[in-house]
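1st attempt posting a full record on here, be nice pls
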Amino acid sequence: MAKKSTLVAAVSLAIVAAGVSAAPASAGATAVNCWDGANCVYYNGTLVDSWSSVMPGECHRTAVYDTIENRTVFAQRIWENDNCTGNSVIVWAGTTRWTSTLRRSIGGV
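the predicted structure (as tokens):
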């Protein structure tokens, strides 16, 4: 009976490990660096800045980035200029977004 329990535990561990490693490489790379409740921005796959959610009416200047991971419960608006002006895009809560235009600030929606 002990061998069966050990085998079941080993198989269960293998299944869990396979599920974790089966995640897309890009998702895994960002999840390691970005905590729940944070906005994290990346440039060419490298984390360059992170902070808590930005509330409506506020503006947070960031390092230049091409990808944002919004792990907050709030939608955030990303801007092309460093003072929350210019072209903008909404990044919904719990999503990651790549943009072809480099961004420099983020504001609350």
